[in-house]
Amino acid sequence: xxxxxxxxxxxxxxxxxxxxxxxxxxxxxxxxxxVQSVKGENKNIxxxxxxxxxxxxxxxxxxxxxxxxxxxxxxxxxxPIKMLFGGDVMLDRQTRLDxxxxxxxxxxxxxxxxxxxQDIVMINLEGAVTSNSSVSNVPVSNPxxxxxxxxxxxxxxxxxxxxxxxxxxxxxxILNFGQSGEQETRNFLEENKISYIGMPSMQENNSxxxxxxGKKIAFVAYNYSAGLSLEKVIExxxxxxxxxxxxxxxxxxxxxxxxxxxxxQKDVAHKFIDAGADLIIGSHPxxxxxxxxxxxxxxxxxxxxLVFDQYFSKDVRERLIVNLLFENDKISFxxxxxYTNNYGxxxxxxxxxxxxxxxxxxxDSSVSEEMKEKIRKVSFSLDLK
Length: 385
Description:
Blueprint: H1 3-17, H2 20-30, H3 40-66, E1 81-89, H4 93-102, E2 120-125, E3 128-129, E4 149-150, H5 152-161, E5 166-168, H6 178-191, E6 195-197, E7 207-212, E8 215-223, H7 230-243, E9 246-252, H8 263-275, E10 279-283, E11 291-294, E12 297-300, E13 305-307, H9 314-317, E14 318-327, E15 330-340, E16 346-348, H10 351-364, H11 369-376, E17 379-383
Parallel strand pairs: 1-2, 1-13, 2-5, 3-4, 5-6, 8-9, 9-10, 10-12
Antiparallel strand pairs: 1-14, 7-8, 11-12, 14-15, 15-16, 15-17
Helix pairs in contact: 1-2, 1-3, 2-3, 7-8, 10-11
């Protein structure tokens, strides 16, 4: 499918499913294109989106003007909070060689607009950023094949180009180069003003709160391989919840290459939400797993890889980005299905790929039939309670 047809497909979804500010948000984040290049139907859709946004602003002004003078209006954000979540990012092995030949921008060049104009871009940093030489370009039978270190300049360029401003380091590769590798990674992230959670040496303080547009958003890491008790993580979530307006748990868990979440994942996710988590983002299985709505909170059991040199099956080549819009009393999600081509570049799935992929995710998800249909159409919203 051509890029033009991909854009038409996404524009059509926006026109049919979203109104007002949300439509503008999705339009600007998923398909920022030169308006002069948009023909016929797409121009009409853009016009309708702008019209709906103007209508929303007019209605909001009327509400304010009609409010009684003695009534104290609740302050609302004029601009919604926009967050993007991606899965595992591994910049060693073949990916390291690709970047050295083609540049860090090559990997996401075809989807780069997705990462723009976000308040939060968060990924799982699947390895240490150190000055050590790579040892991983060896046969898979050699244990060093799974020891990752990322070149500092390459990592800096990749994270900067894609506007990544928070990472989870809570994974089974962050200590591949020991505690010194972890410390180098922390120094690197701090030097580049990137927030982080999940460092093994910081298990007693495993969260960060970021103030965005008047709201406090908490991020908590869970790493199955860290040896930290579940009770400690639950306590961290409870404490973060008390200090924030919205709490995200980024969980490294599950079984590699399993398309369905495990019973253990499900049990842990429910405990996290019972403790106060508003959203759970999962990583580690290297494939995309289903979605669950539990007590009106959303669980993405695994987003799969984002950047990773795995090409051996269709399942590991499929990836998912989640766009989130947090506005007043509503949270809205847009799913961005991706596929890695033979050259290691991320691309939007074509129409047929998207249909098959979303049918699988929706069919396996623990949600209502109505919600399954929304997942097939790449977007859904929930009221915040």
